[in-house]
Amino acid sequence: MSVLKSPNPYFSLILIAYNIIRELRDIGLYIAIDDFGTGYSSLAREKGLNVDCMKIDKYFIDGLLSADRDKAITGDIISIAHKLGHCAVAEGVEHEIQLRYLREHNCDRIQGNLISRPLDEDEAIEFLRWMQ
Question: Which of 51, 60, 53, 48 is nearest to 25 (CA)?
């Protein structure tokens, strides 16, 4: 692994992470950023990480249940993901109204109890067979 050097230790750790992600993608792994929009995620970092997908935190999906969905920024997050070349995954989808909004705003994938409860490996394989 080739790692760029920097006098700033924080920056050096970011560069190491970028290199690891690049190597994982080079061997065919699919990389997603979890819980986008909360915690330590930043747009500058997202662009540089060169990931495949951004998973939108459930906090923003839950906001789609409010009466004023026109003010929700979830659609903007989906748009940003697409502009960065990522797919968008909505986490924690539990209601049809959320699914409708996400479809209207071209969200690529969803996960949540509306589709299925969490499954172990055998259950997931059976679920995928059933879906085909």
Answer: 51
